[in-house]
Amino acid sequence: MRKPIPFVWLIAIFALALSACAPPAAVEDSNAGDDTSSESMAEAGNDGECVVTLGAAVSETGKYAREGKDVRQGYDLWLDWVNGEGGGITVGDQSCSAAIVYYDDESDPDTITRLTEKLITEDGVDLLLGPYSSGMTMAASAIAEKYDIVMVEGNGSSETLFERGFKNLFAVLTPAGNYGESALKSLSELGATSVVIAYEDTAFPTSVALGAVKWAEEYGLEVLAVETYPKDVADVSGIMSKFKELEPDVFLGGGHFNDALLFVRAAKELDFNPKAMVITVGPSNPTFVEEVGADAEYIIGPTQWERTMAYADDYFGTAEEYAVQYESMWGESPTYQAAESTATALTLQLAIEAAGSTDTAAVRDALNALDVNTFYGPINFDDTGKNAGKPMGAIQIQDGEIMVVAPADSAVSDIRYPMPAWSDR
Q: Given a cut of 60, is residue 111 above it in pLDDT?
C-alpha cells in the first residue's frame, strides 16, 4: 500500500501543503522516456502519508485509441471522485489517497506485456486496472498472474480470458458470448427467422460470434452463413456482397468501432437490406451517429450500460446522475466503456476497503465475496472471475437518439422492425 513516492508527486504534495486545504486536483500528465507514461496524482487531506497506487496500461494511440480514451476518462472520473467527495480509500484505520500510474499500450499486445511488467516491478503499483479489449487484457492479465497481483477490468469480455484457471483476474462486464442475446431474442419475437454473422478473427469478436450462433439456435433463427475477417480490415464489401445474396432477416457484426462504420457504409453502398442490423461496440457510442449520420437509424447494438437504466448506488447515485457527473467533467456523454471503467475502479476500491489491505490474497478474497449493486449494475463474481449478476442490454438508434430497447425491464422504447430499405429512406 504505502510506496516510495515519485519525485513529481513529492512536488505536488509540497505544493498542496503550501495551499493548505485546497480541494483535490490532478497533477498534469508527464511523459517519461519512450513509454508516454503519465501519473494521475491523488491529492489530499491525507498529507501524502498513505497512497494506494493503481497501475493501468491503456490505449492512447493505435487501433483502440478511441475506446482507450473512454476507459481512461472513466478511471479518472473515479479518481477525482474518490479523492474528493468519496473521502479517499479506507484501508483499515487509515484514509488513503488514490493514484493511478498510466502508460500508453499503443494497442499492441507486446507493448502492454512489457508495460504491465514495468508497472509491477519498477513502479511498484499495489494493484492493476485493466486495458481496453479482450486481446490486450489477455496479455496484461498473464503478467498479473505471473506476479500474483490482482487485476480488475471492465473491457475484456471474451470467455477465453476466464478459461485459463487464473485466480487474479476479475471482470465487471457481461461476457462477450451474451452480447447478442437480448437483440436476437427480441428480433425473433418480432418475426425474424434467419441471421448472418460476420466477425473479426480476434478474441472478443470470436466470443460474440460463437454466442450469437448459440442464441440464434435457441431462439429459432436459422444461421445462413458465418464469415470472418482479419484485424484492421479496411473493406468488408466482399462479405456483405455474399450476405446480400442470402437475403437474411438479420445481420450481426462482431467487431470494434471502426468495423461498425465499415458494415453500415458497405451495406448502403451495396444496397444490402436485412430487416435488422445488430453491430457490437459502435452503435452505443454517441460518436457513431456523428460519423454515419442518418444512416445510423435503425441500427441495433448491444450495450453494457446506458444512462436510462434503473441502476443506482451510494457512491455515484443513479445511472443518470453518474452520466451528469461525467458530462460535467469531460464535456461529453459517457459511453458504456467509460461507465464500466469507473465501475471497475469502484469495485477495486470496495474490495480494498473490505479487505482492509492491498495484499493480493486479501483483496482477492474480498472480490470473491463481493455482491453489490452499483450505478453500472449488479457485480457478483463467479469462480472464474466473470460477473455472474449482470444482464446485457440492447439499444437502437431512433431519430438520432440511443434508445434502450431490451431487455424489457430496462427498455425505454420498442424496437423498430423491420428497418426500411436504403432506397426508401
A: yes
